[in-house]
Amino acid sequence: MKQKPNARFYHNRLFIQFSNYLKKTSYAAVVLLLLICGQTGYTQSIQNATQKDTAALLTEHNYPFISLVQHNTALLSEIASYKPLQKMARRRNKAIQKALKKGDLTAALKMTQIDSAETSFITQSFIRLSRSNPALAQLIKSTWQNHLFANATTQDAYIVGMIQNTSAGLNYAIHTYLFGGKPTYSKIDAISIDINDPDVYHPLQDSLLKWTKNKSADFLYYLASKTAVEALLLNGRTEAMLYDPLTGGMNAAAQHAISQTDFSKYPYSAILVPGLGPEAPEVRLTEGGKARCRMALLEFKNAKAPFLIVSGGHVHPNKTPFCEAVEMKHYLVDSLGVDSASVIIEPYARHTTTNLRNAARMIHTLGLPFAKPVLIVTDKGQSAYINKGMEKISIRDLGYTPYKDLTILSPTLTSFLPEIQSLQVNPLDPLDP
Q: How far apart (Å, rounded) are the C-alpha atoms in residues 324 and 332?
């Protein structure tokens, strides 16, 4: 069902125009434009957009296996010329072109999705290919070593999980952001376009026809990935790449400080402060969010940990221009006098489960000791949820719990050890995979 776009954020058409504008405009001019428009908090994301194509970044974050293959020209050519997969891809492309010629864009778009039988066929094909193609075997091994996909004991089992993850993620983005399928959290993640709108329909139709004729279309995942990413772009859902790289920008000073920190002096590696997003569009940071920051500061001053991790993305209200983590860091530094180098932003989490998961990712990425516990400081309500009800939700939404050794210390304090499975990509949440 068509939904009205959020007037406070990028209207989809304006977003498309602005994306095109970025390709032609200097970084300084774009930052000036944002400042004039009052869209603070996006400076780092605009810098990223000028350095690397937004679509490529979304592919990299949501579908890393596809991104890695597409960046390896020789391997891409070898996979695309593998006869069983090539035959399947060409048959699909021909059917899509036929549907487009009939003017049936809906049918054409639905054909870009990968069904369960095709996923099984792709899986077996990659298992066979990995045994005869050293480059593919090495790529798979590297993603396995970096825990990007399934937690498996054999390479074949890992490939099964990797392909299932990739296919499911592509289908989710297409189903949700082109056909209005219900996301897990529809209040903040739902579709905002109508593919029957001429300003959406015709560009999408033209793009799909162009993609079917691209030489890369013999790579079975090519059309699906292009369509999935285009769906995210048309909806203005680029949250997944706004603040990369996380080792720079607002985390640059902390990253430098981490290398000089003696963590043996502290009982915890970091203090995690989950965000509390507002519902009022003009509010940057709620009073509850400020209270959590003040509570965490008390523990920080008591030398419980050398760093604070403030966690939360662009969540409430839907498509808000304000990032919870960014606003919490501003409050801690500008209002409470905390050294900027002591505050790490984790600007992507959209739920309590991913506050913990993404904190584990930040600890791994920035080089804090992974085997050292983390202290969570939050209000009694969220603390009770973490300690009593979150495990079931984690299994439902992530497939695992992103923590272990959860320990209740007080009604507002909990500790946990990060779980390495937290590094797994989850494209079923394409705004924070």
A: 12
Q: Are 387 and 408 in contact (CB under 8 A)?
A: yes
pLDDT in tens, 116-165: 999 999 999 999 999 999 999 999 999 999 999 998 999 999 999 999 99
| Residue 265: closest CA among 232, 313, 307 | 307
Query: Would you call 310 helix, strand, or coil by DSSP?
Result: strand
d(CA 67, CA 59): 6
- CA 345/CA 425 separation, integer angstroms: 20
CATH class of the domain comprising 249-423? alpha beta
* Cα–Cα separations (whole angstroms), residue 53 to 60, 273, 406: 11, 32, 40
Distance CA 285, CA 327 (A): 6
Q: For residues 94 and 112, what is the distance between their CA atoms, to the nearest angstrom?
A: 11
**Contact between 130 and 152 (Cβ < 8 Å):** no
b/e 306-329 (16+ beta carbons within 10 angstroms → b): bbbbbbbbbbbbbbbbbbbbbbbb
At 194-218, the pLDDT tens digits run: 999 999 999 999 999 999 999 999 9
Q: How far apart are CA 18 and CA 211, in angstroms?
A: 23
Rg of the chain taking only CA atoms, in angstroms: 22
Chain Cα centroid distance, residue 67: 14
Chunked in runs of 10, what are the mean pLDDT values of the chain (433 residues)?
34 36 36 35 44 86 97 96 96 97 97 97 97 96 94 95 97 98 92 96 96 95 98 96 94 97 98 94 95 98 98 95 97 98 98 98 98 98 94 94 97 98 97 97
Distance CA 143, CA 152 (A): 12
CA geometry: angle 268, 262, 271, nearest 5 deg: 25
- What is the structure's pLDDT at 389? 83
Q: How does DSSP assign 85-141, residue by residue?
A: HHHHHHHHHHHHHHHHHTT-HHHHHHTTS--HHHHHHHHHHHHHHHHH-HHHHHHHH
Scan for tokens 């949700």, then name that residue. Answer: 176
Domain layout of the chain by residue ranges: 52-241, 249-423
Yes or no: say if 276 and 286 are a contact pair by the CB < 8 Å rule: yes
Beta strands across the sheet bearing 413-418? 343-346, 308-311, 271-274, 374-377, 413-418, 403-410
